[in-house]
Amino acid sequence: MVPVGFTSRSKRDLIGTLAHVIGERRIQVAADCPGADDLREELRHFVASPTRTGWAFTGKAGGGHDDLVMALALAVRAALVQRQFGLSLAS
After folding, report:
1. Does 91 fall in a domain?
2. CA dist 50 → 6, 33, 43, 68, 75 (Å)
3. Domain for residue 74, yes or no?
4. Cα separations in angstroms, 91 against 1, 32, 47, 70, 88
5. 90 in a structural domain
6. How many other β-carbons are positioned within 10 Å of the β-carbon of residue 72?
7. Residue 7 contacts by C-beta under 8 Å, 6 or more apart in sequence?
8. What is the structure's pLDDT at 63?
9. What is the structure's pLDDT at 87?
10. What is the rounded CA–CA span in Å between residue 29 and residue 46?
């Protein structure tokens, strides 16, 4: 397991990668996936707002959850790293 620190920059990079993958339709959420409806709801309401020092990310305008969005972003990043470097993520 590799620890990931969440900073404004790391979240921006993760979300940018996720947005790119979604935009290219390279990822789908299976209808029977546990939590699929919650994930879709978070994705629909996810907000990125510019600030003086970077970007602020929230689950909804005015607050909300983004846990599932960030988990998906981390999973996408791990899959891309695995593919790029031919690494096995299994222990």
Report:
1. no
2. 17, 32, 18, 22, 25
3. yes
4. 9, 27, 35, 23, 8
5. no
6. 19
7. none
8. 66
9. 65
10. 16
The predicted pLDDT at position 62 comes to 63
pLDDT over threshold 60, residue 86: yes
Token pair of 14, please? 């993760």
Asked, for residue 3, whether it belongs to a domain, the answer is no
For every residue of 42-85, DSSP letters joined together read HHHH-EEEEETTEEEEESSTT----HHHHHHHHHHHHHHHHHHH
> What count of residues does the chain have?
91
Q: Give the pLDDT confidence of 36-81 residue by residue, as tens digits.
A: 999 998 888 888 777 887 777 767 666 677 889 999 999 999 888 8
Domain count, the chain: 1
> For residue 34, what are the domain limits?
8-82
User: Positive or negative, the Cα torsion across 3, 5, 10, 11?
Assistant: positive
Q: What spatial distance separates the first Cα and last Cα of the chain, rounded to whole Å?
A: 9
